[in-house]
Amino acid sequence: MVEHLDTTTEPAIVEQVHAARAAGSTLAIHGGKTKDFYGNPVQADAELDCSIHRGVIAYEPTELAITVRAGTPLAEVEALLAEHGQEFPFEPPHFGERATIGGMVAAGLSGPRRPYAASVRDAVLGVRMLNGKGEVMDFGGRVMKNVAGYDLSRLMVGALGVLGVLLEVSIKVMPRPPGRITLIQEQDQASALASMQRWAGQALPITGTAWLCGRLHLRVAGSEEALSETQRILGGTPVAAAEADAFWTAVREQRLECFADEQALWRVSVPPATAADVIPDVELIEWSGALRWLKTELAGVTGSAVKPRRYGASAVSAVRANDRINDAGDVDAGAIRPWAAAAGGHATLFRAGASTPRPSDGVFAPLSPVVMRLHQRLKQAFDPDGLFNLGRLY
Amino acid sequence: MSRIPDERPLNPKPEVISELRRLLPAASVLATEAELAPYECDGLSAFQQRPLVVALPETVEQVQQIMQLCHRLEVPVVARGAGTGLSGGALPLADGVLLSLAKFNRIIAIDPANRSARVQPGVRNLAISEAVAPHGLYYAPDPSSQIACSIGGNVAENSGGVHCLKYGLTVHNILKLTLVSVEGELFEVGAEALDSPGLDLLALMTGSEGMLGIIVEVTVKLLPKPERAQALLASFDSVERAGAAVAEIIGAGIIPAGLEMMDNPAIRAAEAFVHAGYPVDAAAILICELDGFNAEVSVDVMRVRELLLGAGATDVRTAADDAERLRFWKGRKAAFPAVGRISPDYYCMDGTIPRRQLGPVLNRIAELSAEVGLAVANVFHAGDGNLHPLILYDANNPGELEQAESLGGAILELCVEVGGTVTGEHGVGVEKLNQMCVQFNRAELTQMHAVKAAFDPKGLLNPGKAVPTLHRCAEFGAMHVHHGALKFPELPRF
Ligand SMILES: Cc1cc2nc3c(=O)[nH]c(=O)nc-3n(C[C@H](O)[C@H](O)[C@H](O)COP(=O)(O)OP(=O)(O)OC[C@H]3O[C@@H](n4cnc5c(N)ncnc54)[C@H](O)[C@@H]3O)c2cc1C
Q1: Of ligand 1's atoms, which has the minimum distance to the CA of residue B160?
Q2: Of the residues A125, A159, A175, which one is the last residue of a structural domain?
Q3: I need a surface site. Which of A149, A169, B47, B390 has the fewest CB within 10 A?
Q4: Is the Flavoprotein keyword given for this protein (chain B) (predicted)?
């Protein structure tokens, strides 16, 4: 990998941070701005554009790792990996052509393959970053195993830039499986969940599960032998390759029809075996049951009733008993978090139309007092003057 | 020899003993010399120190009360699991409480549907896989010490095993932790779901060596057992060729479940100890395990066999049955004690390097070993580039321990030089504090101290471990300039 790297972009970013610090102003860090919809709104005096800092620093396929500058477009990196028969195991969503590696890591969002391979956080090996004092620091490394000091590189994953500016990231990559197939089965929600559980308990090379509108989509990847054996075990109707790839891209990028409107979209992360009626009225189930998406007309006004978006009457009647749905059969947005918490998970208001009011306590589920205190102290430890992405996470 | 790395002034508060006796049954507070002796070191016996007192709580409330007490009296606390750590992480402090989690040895719940289990921190690693086996599940990270080490210690060190190339380290295989803070508060990080809101404190806690909180419960992820596992044993007449074969296999897009290497001294020691059937004349062997479906494994075994022969293996054996496969592993897993039989003492290093550097680094280690005059046996996780050079020495020969340490230090610095790290899975503890000064600069170390202070403002949890003070690095840095002229300084005791 020989590439000309512009050596002026890192000093330029460092300089901007020093200047902001000196001026007592705050910064909103961004890459390609493809994930601006995610998280709480940032209060900032100025923007810090990291998309100028791009390029591949090291990529040796046999090391199963790549080191890239944070502003490098994700699509470019994925294309490079594909040339060498490799890929990111966590199948990151892009949410737009301009998505960068830095944004991918800061958002920490993984795609359909996550439970079967790795999350972004699992795959991050090291970071080069800038703290709020404008100091450039390297944590972790480029090797697979590293326990020297605290794991501050993984701490940056999903931190949405509140702890510092990502400059470079080293990420584990994996060989692309030789083949893949997608199978479809007609199943209602409860039976789809049960099937997904049964299969997750066996060592099968499943790399994606998606249930929506009464259909369960199963993606399997591996050698020819593994594919035929798995197909025999799972059953179902195979989908043509191009159509299947388009489907999984649509799931990953949230371009399925059910995502197309302006309603509030909730991301509910729960233990996979959580019963269907605990989280009623879902649009889409992924990750063998561990990720469920649902929509409400209003997002946050606790106690407010919203318009019905119903599948399966049984789900509705099960929760009606608990008073979580009003007489008109509408899901109460304020009930989603308690449902998720009761199941051992959490709910995030993932997207909502610009005019939709946000929950008063933010889009992310509130933390326990002790954990919140640790968050505040960690923020203080990395960014003592409160320079970066204020309010984005909490 | 008592070697104390801690730079704090000693501040013994004997009243903590009587206060502990109010919180715990008499048999759970140990304070006589004879009672303290078993706790004076962990698996790194070159460092020894008796604690002021050992506390053996058995409930979470007791742990909370102990932490509240120690926080109030400002007494340092060192957590201890099974004491198998190899970097002195659980080395006691003369004025501190040693908090043993040994009584937390219950598997609280197994959840086959969610493929997870809630266990207490003192549960042995292997006991988890044994307990969940009836459900066709297992816990993937399998350190060679798995019959003894505790899951709490595994989390605190982010331990690996021979299968982490494919299945990951501890950090990839746990879902949730319950911890007691230095102030005695209970809190949870992670979730039984695949993610949780906020910063990834689960990742931060993993590998934090008891510096940020006391782990009182661990929810581990369980995996279904693959249909079949098969192992190959390949012999090589040079270490470089074995190293190159590792890159060949991975370059071909195969991720073996395990890919381990042993050099000739390690092969001989293991063979003499457990009679695994190893080729004692080979310069190096690779053990490669493949798992998955029966049909898939058969194909991969043939491919790997071809790759190994193509890379210059002089012999490739495929295990005829599961018994032979386990025999291949037996020698590998017993390699440390096997080396312990042929040398009065050995010192185990733990650097990780980029895989392509395997050959050159092993050669350089051989040169360093010859220069110092101490033999080195290599047995390691080749697939991950995680080296375990075992330096053979005799502590009874004056100066040999120091020689072993300085050879070890040189090896770790070599690992950093080629783009690696000073510790892949054993942790920094007290052992690699100086090498941390080589790997990290002032700003980075200061940042780590700030993270520590966020959790533990008074610095009472395992103080003096894992992250060196800048003062220490300044001293070591000065030492470093006169490379080779001086050995590591004996730091003043208190
Ligand atoms: C023969 C042998 C082979 C080994 N092989 C491997 C291997 O293959 N891979 C590997 O990674 N390691 C290996 N090790 C190292 C060691 O077994 C691991 O580091 C193990 O995880 C330590 O567990 P322990 O319970 O013995 O912890 P201890 O040694 O008791 O403690 C280790 C650290 O964890 C902290 N700690 C322990 N329990 C808690 C808790 N509940 N809360 C907070 N902090 C805690 C301690 O303070 C200390 O810093 C080996 C060791 C030996 C002796």
Answers
A1: 11
A2: A175
A3: B47
A4: yes
